[in-house]
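Sample entry (306 residues):
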Amino acid sequence: MLPYLSGPTQQFLSDLQNMNSEMNTLSQQMSSGLRVNSVADDPASVPQIMELEAQIGRLQQTNTNLTNLQPELQSGDSALQQAMTNIESAISIASQASNSLTTAGSMTALATQVQGIMANLVKLSNTSSNGRYIFSGDLDQQALYTLDATQPTGVRQLATATSTRAITDSTGTQIWLSKTSSEIFDARNPDTTPANDNVFAAVNSLLTALQAGSSSGALASIANLQSAHDHLNQELGYYGIGENRVTDTLNSESQILVSVQTNLSGLRDVDMATAAVQMNQLTVQQQAALTSRAKIGGINLFDFLA
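Predicted structure, serialized as tokens:
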């Protein structure tokens, strides 16, 4: 049984225990880098800390999503520019073929060029980036079109796809919704017939005219080719807007992320310099106290510090 301890002795031991507790807390904080390691450390700050951590998670996920989206948008932009160049070539060929003096041999040679243009357009409609067909909507693991001369548009649709993959910012605001190759290259009227700006149909009408040796047919195809070109230009603008939105959102949310991380650090992280000073002060106080009262009434104070 421990001997009776006087009031001053009990106070002395209590003070030492408090110092030990503070030193243990500081040691844990300095080791983890965190001022708040559990709810008990600062109950009032925990809800705000959790909200800031959740906000950081949303911002980081948005950053990842938008960074992954950038190559897709760049690939789409490039594909649409190439498609427009191909349509411009088709318009030039149609103008050449519209001359009634164009020979049958020239018509055949021009038809071969247009076949190449059609093949290029199908390839562009099936553009891929990072293992995804970027114009295939929700069916991004398969191409949607292939060449098929037996079809009225010169191509065959392999699958019907919709696009519901919306990319949003950290607040849930939609930044981007991809379009399908059907919308871009194979525009249709409400009755499903090819629209005047249907890219595939416009080029195929020129090809059909050239194969038939029809100068008038080649001339007639120019109007739809121009409509197809205008349509592609609108789609290119859509992708350009998407690229700008992604860049702007990445920049703004990166700034927000820094601010939120700073706020979280102020609430949760330990001030290492201040903690080190406090630890040193407590160590000095403890050593001084133990030195001045190493023994009290024959009782070893260390017996009470465990």
